[in-house]
Amino acid sequence: MPGHTSSHRQRCGKHLSLGGLALTLLLCPATTAQPRQNWLTPQPKPAPQAPRTAPATPCPVSGNPDPLLGPRTRMPGRWVGRGAVKPDLPIVVMAGHADSQAMASAGTPGFAVDKRRQAPMDPRMRDELYWNLQVQKAVVRLGRTRGLNISAYTPPALTIRNDEDPRTNWSQAKTRSARGDYILEIHFDAYRPYGFGSGLIPAINRPLHAVDESLAQAFGRFPRLFRSGLGGPRRGIGILEIAMLEPPLENKLRNPSTRSQTLECIAERVVNALVQGVS
Ligand SMILES: [Zn+2]
């Protein structure tokens, strides 16, 4: 979605355009770092080109390549999601590889661990799963505040070797997708040159609709039969590759001082797309 901005920025930007510094301070207190002022004293008008009040940490505006997520998939698809969905569409968010640790399909270790020999974020799991879980949590939390009918599913064990075990992401997706739930599985792609970039690998078991389309417009779209049709999409999972797990995004996630803001901005991208898809 070119030109899309965070809702907070839009909200505060309007107030700024009124030219009222005091009004901006009143309405956007959390994102301003101004000294205390006497409201009754006329304030000097801020220069229009350089407003003194701006959100302290606005989310980057999307683009391609994207300043937050990097490049979109270098192997794009051509499908279009056209069907409408109900506003209360049940959305189930899963973390990719949540039940396949210590297996061949454990997910990417990421650039930091593989190439820089840094310690994994959590020794029990690949870094991809660690970040998948963080994004999953943030998406569900933010999605609820935006009125989505959204929930998380997380398997009870990090390693479940039998795909048909009813507790796996795949088994849960198959059942829930059959009853009409939207299954979104969060992933990070491998770092370059192995990764493809961000984008949605859509479900194969049903017609594609407005939510698939909205996510594809926000993140990019993979071919519908990517790698001849993956196990997840065959069971109704939409695989969302957030980005390749490499710098500079990986550094922002690993740095404790930028981590929560980065996760929040990623979640906001996902939730904005979901909200647009169901409305
Ligand atoms: Zn993955």
Automatic annotation (TrEMBL):
Superkingdom in the source lineage: Bacteria
Positions of the UniProt region annotated as Disordered: 36-72
Position of the signal peptide: 1-33
Biased composition (Low complexity): 50-60
Alphabetical UniProt keywords: Signal
Name this protein carries in UniProt: N-acetylmuramoyl-L-alanine amidase
Source species of the chain: Parasynechococcus marenigrum (strain WH8102)
Lineage, highest ranks first: Bacteria, Bacillati, Cyanobacteriota, Cyanophyceae, Synechococcales
